[in-house]
Amino acid sequence: MHAERFGFDSAWIAQHHFHETEGVYRPLRVPVARAAKTSRIGSATGIVTLPLELPVRVAEDAVVLDLLSGHRLEVGAARAAT
After folding, report:
1. In sequence order, which residues have a C-beta less than 8 Å from that of residue 55 and are 6 or more positions away?
2. What is the distance between the alpha carbons of residues 77 and 49, in angstroms, rounded to a whole number?
3. How far is 38 from 53, CA to CA, in rounded Å?
4. Cβ neighbours of residue 47 closer than 8 Å, sequence gap 6 or more
5. What is the pLDDT of residues 15-68, one digit of tens each?
6. What is the dihedral angle through the alpha carbons of 29, 30, 32, 34, rounded to the nearest 10 degrees?
7. Are 35 and 66 in contact (CB under 8 A)?
8. In whole angstroms, what is the distance from residue 16 CA to residue 64 CA?
9. I need a surface site. Which of 4, 25, 38, 42 has the fewest CB within 10 A?
């Protein structure tokens, strides 16, 4: 991955509901692919808006991804968007 080759330490993904050109709906899916293609770069979510998700599923997905990536995941969570 280019980011890792150029010395980046982490890559972040945003979650934006109801906006066609910004972010993604399921931000924990993208870091799975990133973790598979990198060996040291960390993955992070901006903010996962928990009321718009199933919080238990977010927690389960985050734990599995963190384990698969060698503990390279950071997750931001909030109860509302601003």
Report:
1. none
2. 6
3. 28
4. 14, 15, 76, 77, 78, 81
5. 766 666 655 566 677 777 777 788 888 888 888 888 888 889 889 989 998 998
6. 180
7. no
8. 23
9. 25
User: 3-state SS string over the chain?
Assistant: CHHHHCCCCEEEECECCCCCCCCECCCCCHHHHHHHHCCCCEEEECCEEHHHCCHHHHHHHHHHHHHHCCCCEECCEECCCC
- Specify whether the CB–CB gap between 80 and 47 falls below 8 A: no
Q: Alpha carbon 65 to chain centroid distance?
A: 9
Strand order through the sheet with 42-45: 10-13, 42-45, 73-74
